[in-house]
Structures are given as C-alpha cells and as structure tokens.
Specification:
Layout lengths: L1 H19 L16 E3 L5 E3 L1 E6 L2 E5 L5 E5 L5 H19 L1 E6 L9 H15 L2 H9 L2 H19 L5 E6 L16 H8 L6 E5 L3 E6 L30 E4 L4 E7 L8 E5 L4 E3 L20 E3 L5 E3 L7 H4 L5 E3 L4 E3 L17 E3 L5 E4 L10 E4 L2 E2 L10 E2 L18 E7 L4 E8 L2 E9 L4 E7 L5 E7 L1
Parallel strand pairs: 17-19
Antiparallel strand pairs: 1-2, 3-4, 4-5, 6-7, 8-9, 9-10, 11-20, 12-13, 12-16, 14-15, 16-17, 18-19, 21-22, 23-24, 24-25, 25-26, 26-27
Helix pairs in contact: 3-5
C-alpha cells in the first residue's frame, strides 16, 4: 500500500513540475534569430539581445536562452547610449502599467484538492482492506468512481497557481470619438508656413494642401552629430507632383497606427519650414536622437543626402510663436510646448496629442520620446510595397539621390558646417584630434562635385550628375 501512495505522490509532483515549468531559452539554435552586436571599450564584441537591467549591468539573452551580463561602464560610448535608451524604454513601459493580481489564495476551488486528498487517505487507512477490496478494487462502479476521483485530484494538483496579471494603462488612453471632423481651412495651414516663404511655396485644391521646398532649412545643419553615416544635405526636388501633401479633411483612425512598430520609412509630418519629420526611431528601431545620429536642430541626412528631422523642431516656435510648427500627414497640426492659446501644454495621450479647445485633435512636440507622434491619430493610406515596420504613408514626396549611399564613419564627430559660395558647403569632422573635410557644390546643370579629405590629408574628388 505504501508503494501505491509513493507512486501517487510521484505522479502528482512530476505532472505539476512539467505543466508549470517555463521552457528554457527564447532563442534556440537554428531559428535564424539575429543578435545585436554590443561593442566594448576594449574593442571586443558581445552578441545578444537586451533582456533587462540590474546592478549597473545589462543582461543579454543569447542562443539557447543563456544570459550574459555586461557592465554599462564596459560598453563603448555609443552602445552606452543605446543601452540607456533601452533601459529607459523598458522602465517607461513598466511604469505605465498597474498590475492587479488574482492569486491562488482567491481561487474559488482552493480547498478542493485538500478535501479530495483527505478523503483518499481516509479510504486507505481507515477502511478495512477486505471492504476496500470488495467495493472498490473488485467493483466496476467503485473502481471507476475512485479512478475518476484520483484523476480529478491530479488535475487540480497540477493546475497552474501562477499569478494572473491584468494590465491597465495609467496614461491617457487613445480615444477616437465617432464624429465627423470639419474640413481644415487652408488659410489656417497657410498662415503657419507664411514666415518661411519664399524659401518654400504653397498651394491647395479641394483635397490637399501642398508644400514645395528644396529640402534645405533656414538654420545651420549637421553640427553635433556623433554617429555619422557620411551623408550630407543637398537640395531635393520637393515640388510640383512631388510636393508634400496634407489632407484638408482629416478623419480619426479606428485604430491609431503606432510609430513604435510602423512608419520607420518616409515622413510622418512636414515642418513649417518645408523639412520632413520622420519617425523618432530609425529603420533599425533605435532612437536616432539618443544614439547620436541627430544634429543640434534634431535632424540629419538619409541615404539620398536628404535632410530631415527625427526629433521635434521646437526651435521653429521662436519664429512661429503659438502657430503650429508642423502638420502630420494625417492632417492634424503639431504645436510646440504651448497650447494654441498660450496656456501650458495639457496632458498628452499615447498618440502624443489631445483634443483642443476647438474640439479637433492636435499633436505636440516635446524634448522626450516620441518627440512628435506616438501613433497616427488620423487615417492614413499606406504604401502596399512597404511592409511594417518599414512601411510608409502615401502620398508623400520622395528624394532623388545623387550618389551611392555611404557607410558610417567610426569615431567621427561633426564640428562645423558652413556655406561655400551660393551652391556649396564645407563640413568639418573630427576623429580623435584630427580633422577631416567634405567640400561639395553643384552648378546650374545639377552637376555635383564632392572633395573628400580624410584625417590623414588624402583628398578624393568625385563628380555626379543628377
């Protein structure tokens, strides 16, 4: 009889362990998982994907679920910035949720396993063996009933007792009122762009407001970039059929499109100085500002040598006052750090905006992620040729590259950027204590000349025809 009891206990323990155990390792060999490369100050590379942060170290999950700890102080300066971004992102996610637990103590059947087990022990030890054998072991009904009882006991003993978590966001939720929005008055939009004319031009029809520009802002560029891919700003053909388009009849989206998992290609808004605003995250899902890709004005150049912002161009409020600093490609305006009436900015929802005093939605630019747009509040059409996360909104203007895309220049910091003549610039960068230069210009026939001088003084000249 003791052997039977031991066998039952062994079954209960074994089944419970198997059903409740967490499978080891998210990343199994052969699954094709791509691991991030983390560079240390000593030049070594550690492969792994960020898992969590503890005691001044990040923990990287590697193949087979192995965890590798790396001290923040051991990472290169650039990867320290990336690590801090991920740490802050995870902290923000954790802090934005309340957790309500339903533990096993509140389970409605919490005492049933104990009751059934007590009955079973009673049957074994207190009923005479002859009666037990007659009415249970040699009785079809008794044997079936006792088997069912034992099976129920095993199921209940092996059921999960883990805490069930219900997540409730504590930030303002995205609310989409079912309402018909008024058509935006084109004079309102035009007034926001007025201060930046004639460097840009505007026009409109019944459906869209159009902005034409050459893609060069009214401020300096590039200075302050510490993670540079060797692109430089050149003029862009944002005109005629390739102008930027803002819908005059916005409509609330049924489900706002999150910029955390979408729109990592192309613009999400157009600034009032004619410069496009891209997602805060680059096409690798990294915060461009935090990893040093942006200049002192929140912009940099893409693969087509096209200048654009990834952070909010709040400096435009110095010129535009309380008028919008940009318009999203869903048709809603973007304001700076103040409300249109000059009052302090109200609480933002997860789209990074709210309903204004005119009962119409607007976004705000801020110095913190997501800087401009957290999700597209309005309906947008997506390019079917670009799957998420590198999908993009249509219509939008496109760049026209002059030269092949360049690659990152390790250790370079851009220290100066100056005009040379009427159609040219001189960019100065530094690696260590030595300077390098990119001098480039273009003529009326759109012939571009680039003179690249590295930190050792070697110069190479290339010409390109647009």
């Amino acid at each position: 009889m003791k052997k039977i009891i031991y066998f039952i206990f062994l079954c209960l323990f074994s089944l419970n362990a198997n059903l409740s155990a967490h499978p080891g390792g998210h990343y199994k060999k052969g699954e094709g998982v791509i691991f991030n490369n983390w560079k240390l100050k000593n030049g070594a590379i550690v492969k792994g994907n960020f898992s969590f942060y503890k005691n001044n170290a990040i923990y990287l999950e590697q193949e087979g679920g192995r965890l590798q700890s790396v001290l923040l102080s051991d990472l290169s300066l650039q990867d320290q910035k990336l690590a801090n971004f991920k740490i802050n992102k995870y902290l923000a996610l954790n802090n934005s949720y309340n957790t309500t637990s339903i533990t096993v103590e509140n389970h409605p059947y919490k005492n049933l396993p104990l009751l059934l087990f007590t009955i079973f022990i009673f049957l074994i030890y207190f009923i005479k063996p002859a009666i037990l054998e007659k009415y249970i072991l040699k009785s079809t009904v008794g044997l079936s009933t006792s088997s069912l009882l034992l099976f129920t006991l095993i199921l209940l003993a092996c059921s999960k007792t883990e805490t069930t978590i219900t997540n409730t966001p504590i930030t303002n939720p995205i609310t989409n009122p079912i309402t018909s929005l008024p058509k935006t008055n084109y004079t309102f939009i035009d007034s926001a762009f007025a201060s930046f004319k004639p460097a840009l031009s505007t026009k409109w029809d019944d459906n869209y407001f159009y902005i034409a520009s050459n893609g060069i802002p009214n401020h300096n560029m590039m200075i302050g970039i510490t993670s540079w891919q060797q692109q430089v700003p050149i003029t862009q053909p944002y005109a005629d059929n390739n102008s930027w388009s803002i819908p005059l009849q916005p409509a609330y989206a049924t489900t706002p499109l999150s910029t955390k998992t979408n729109l990592m290609k192309g613009a999400v808004a157009i600034a009032v100085n004619g410069i496009p605003i891209f997602n805060a995250l680059n096409n690798r899902g990294e915060d461009s500002y935090l990893i040093g890709e942006l200049d002192n004005w929140g912009g940099h150049c893409g693969r087509g040598d096209d200048y654009h912002y990834h952070a909010a161009p709040l400096h435009l409020s110095v010129i535009n006052g309380l008028k919008p600093i940009a318009f999203a490609l869903d048709g809603f305006p973007v304001y700076g750090s103040k409300e249109p009436d000059g009052s302090s900015m109200a609480i933002l929802d997860t789209c990074h905006g709210h309903i204004g005093s005119n009962n119409v939605y607007h976004y705000h630019g801020t110095i913190d992620y997501p800087y401009v747009i957290g999700a597209m509040k309005g309906k947008v059409a997506l390019d079917p040729a670009t799957p998420a996360p590198e999908n993009q909104i249509l219509p939008q203007a496109f760049t026209k590259p002059v030269r092949p895309a360049t690659s990152p220049l390790k250790g370079a910091t851009i220290t100066d950027f100056a005009n040379v003549g009427t159609n040219g610039y001189l960019l100065t960068y530094k690696i260590g204590t030595k300077n390098g230069y990119v001098k480039y210009s273009w003529d009326a026939a759109n012939k571009y000349t680039f003179i690249l001088t590295d930190t050792s003084g070697v110069a190479v000249t290339n010409t390109y025809q647009r």
